[in-house]
Design goal:
Elements lengths: L4 H12 L3 H20 L4 E3 L3 E7 L4 E7 L1 H6 L11
Antiparallel strand pairs: 1-2, 2-3
Length: 85
């Protein structure tokens, strides 16, 4: 299963008891700011979610995402290795 933007807006609207038009406008503005930051070569850090960044290659830009520890834990893995586990 996957959710699209319309479903995401619906869920956030319900969670915040806000109109879907308002939530969609905020989501669109947030995404535009992320896009613009990445295009300028800046990374975007979202606490408890992760960091989006780009790296330049020889002939292209490479899009990267580094998940936060909270997101890693949600999927049962961590970036740190504990040999006693």
């Amino acid at each position: 299963m996957s959710i699209d933007k319309k479903e995401l807006v619906k869920r956030v609207s319900k969670r915040l008891s806000k109109g879907s038009g308002t939530v969609e406008e905020i989501l669109d503005a947030t995404l535009e700011e992320i896009y613009e930051s990445l295009k300028q070569g800046d990374s975007v850090f979202l606490r408890n979610f992760g960091t989006f960044y780009v790296r330049t290659g020889r002939e292209c830009w490479v899009f990267k995402f580094n998940p936060s520890q909270r997101l890693r834990q949600a999927f049962g893995w961590s970036s740190t290795h504990n040999p006693k586990s």
